[in-house]
Amino acid sequence: MKKMKKKEISFVETTLKDIKDKIVIVTGANSGVGFAICNTLLDKKAHIVMACRNPQKADFARLKLLENHPDAKIDVLLYSQSSISDCNFSIFSPESL
To answer: 86, 80 in Cβ contact below 8 A?
Structure first.
């Protein structure tokens, strides 16, 4: 007799129940964990703002995310983190690239 496996419920399924159209800012969004988080949030239909330092890397990552999520709402927040007093923020939308 086969043992039935319990369905594993992921953190995302239990914690992020309804985030459709919620705006989420993700730091380090152009690579690694930040990029993976963006994918997960887009799976749940969130509107993400990718907080990145390098505009070229941010745009490349944004385009990669759009390959899997063509209807996604993705903005990019460029910032400098050289010092707290020097944090400059500017948001650009896909139309401004």
So the answer is: yes
pTM above 0.85, yes or no: no
Query: 1 is written with which tokens?
Result: 């007799």
Pairwise CA distance, residues 84 & 6, whole Å: 48
Decide if 39 contacts 68 (C-beta within 8 A). yes
Cα(26)–Cα(40) distance, integer angstroms: 11
Q: Where are the beta strands (DSSP E) in 1-97?
A: 23-27, 47-52, 73-79, 89-92
pLDDT digits (tens, 9 = 90+) for 5-60: 555 556 666 677 788 989 999 988 999 999 999 999 999 999 999 988 899 999 99
What is the rounded distance in angstroms from the CA atom of residue 61 to the CA atom of residue 54?
11
